[in-house]
Design brief:
The protein is an alpha/beta fold. The protein has 11 helices and 12 strands. The strands form 3 sheets. It has a 7-stranded mixed sheet. A 3-stranded antiparallel sheet has the order 5-7-6. Strands 1-2 form a two-stranded antiparallel sheet. α6 links the parallel β3 and β4. The protein is globular and about 60 Å long.
Length: about 300
């Protein structure tokens, strides 16, 4: 079925038309909406990504019954309910491609090097308690993968280890999915059979995460670009922030990475995505090499 069942196509039509009104993102509207997005969450749409922003906002504009991108921008800027609309805007522009055990080398580094090192340092002070943050956690696969790894490979070795995992994202919808603890086959496609049998239970057409793992993980809405909100994210020993920096320009990257640094305890580690680097962004971290991956340490 056509996305625009009431449309009438003209021979030279190149943009969607609803009830006779052409929906085209003009350069002026693109600049306004791009700036609004950037100032609110740090994501920057390059000129060659105009078509991407246009297509992602179109569904929302249709849902609101609006006739143009300019009308949508005015709604974002002036409507009294604009805070709620920001939520829908962020959901429209974010990508949530993830699955369990997506970055095994980082999890291996966690088990073999990072957590044992942190435990040894903390044992000198008595209580062994770790705080781990999965920033931009999407629907929770990364956070739960960390939980499973710790429970299965570290907790037996360090029975006095206490830990909590917090997942955050700017997208409200994916966070609700994460909190449910239910995942489809696509999400578990890379999960080792051993873990699948031990920590998941079939439930209808989905798989439910083990309740003991679920208890160790909590989720909250958070904008990494919001300085005030970021002040509440403190005293973490390990932060995972994969595939986020690629959406920011240099200025936004510097700001976010600086805030992440402030959120880490001394001796803590930051892990980012395969295609990301802190080169030219921050000299505050020390690069630590692990097999097939690297981490950034706060000395």
């Amino acid at each position: 079925m056509s996305q625009f069942p009431n449309r009438v196509l003209s021979p030279d039509e190149s943009f969607p038309v609803i009830t006779g009104i052409e929906l085209k993102l003009s350069d002026v509207s693109f600049e306004k909406i791009r700036e609004f997005i950037y100032s609110n969450c740090g994501v920057y749409f390059q000129d060659n990504k105009k078509y991407l922003l246009e297509s992602r906002l179109l569904k929302r504009i249709n849902h609101l019954g609006m006739c143009s991108y300019e009308e949508y921008f005015e709604y974002l800027k002036f409507n009294r309910g604009s805070i709620d609309e920001k939520k829908f805007l962020f959901e429209a522009i974010t990508i949530n491609e993830t699955f369990f055990f997506r970055n095994s080398p980082q999890l291996d580094a966690l088990v073999t090097n990072v957590i044992p090192e942190l435990i040894a340092a903390k044992r000198k002070n008595g209580r062994i308690r770790l705080r781990i943050w999965s920033a931009a956690s999407s629907s929770g696969e990364e956070a739960y993968s960390i939980g499973i790894t710790i429970a299965d490979l570290l907790k037996p070795k360090y029975p006095d280890l206490e830990y909590e995992i917090i997942g955050t994202d700017i997208n409200h919808t994916v966070l609700e999915s994460a909190k449910s603890g239910l995942f489809r086959e696509y999400s578990i496609r890379n999960t080792p059979v051993y873990y699948l049998k031990k920590y998941f239970k079939p439930k209808g057409n989905a798989f439910e995460i083990d309740p003991e793992i679920k208890k160790k993980v909590s989720f909250k809405l958070l904008n990494l670009y919001d300085d005030i909100a970021m002040r509440s994210m403190a005293n973490f020993d390990i932060i995972f922030c994969a595939n986020v920096l690629i959406y920011f320009d240099m200025k936004a990257k510097v700001k976010v990475v600086s805030n992440l640094y402030n959120s880490l305890n001394k001796g803590g580690y930051l892990f980012i995505g395969y295609a990301e680097t802190l080169h030219m962004i921050s000299k505050a971290y020390t690069i630590v090499s692990f097999p097939k991956t690297i981490g950034y340490k706060k000395e």
